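Researcher: Next sequence.
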Amino acid sequence: MSVKSIFFTLLATGTIWAGSAQAEWQAIEKVETYSVSGTTGPELYASIGQKGPQISKNRRTIAHTNFTLLWSRKYKTDDGNCTLVSAKPKLTITYTLPKPAQKLPPETAALWATFYAGIEKHEHIHGDYIKEMVQKIETATVGMSVANDPKCIRFKTELNKVLSELFQEQRQRGRDFDRSDMAQGGNIHQLILGLVNGH
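Model: Next structure:
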């Protein structure tokens, strides 16, 4: 259900920061909405199909999670070696979710509240996976060193390998979760049935 994007900055900016890496930052999480029309469950779900986030040329989804990730890094080049001594992430996670364009009748509003809460929870699990990926990047890269690399050229090549591997791991984890949660009879399928069939 989710589309994710990532942007890495490999050049160090800022200053050295102290303390536990994982305790020094917090992800910025925000919600963007798109408008759906209708006053019944079937009408709302049909509108989602027409207006939901487009994830490919002919495919839309109910909701998605997108993120940007920037880093402030500090390198040390003592004795000609390149060592990453600090890395502070700036992670922004954006959840895109549907929102009714008008006030719903009480019965439909109750159905929508259950549907929305389930979809929101699903997307926030994707957000948790992204935050865990960033923590893994910190653990794997801070203190990493490449010998005889005074300009940190080979270091950045090695760093990119680590970033790519952990990013692909996160993407696969998200795909596996979607496959399970969106399977026939799975959580998302049940949420849709509840909205459309009124139970």
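Model: Residues 2-22 have pLDDT under 50 and may be disordered. The chain is about 45% helix and 25% strand.
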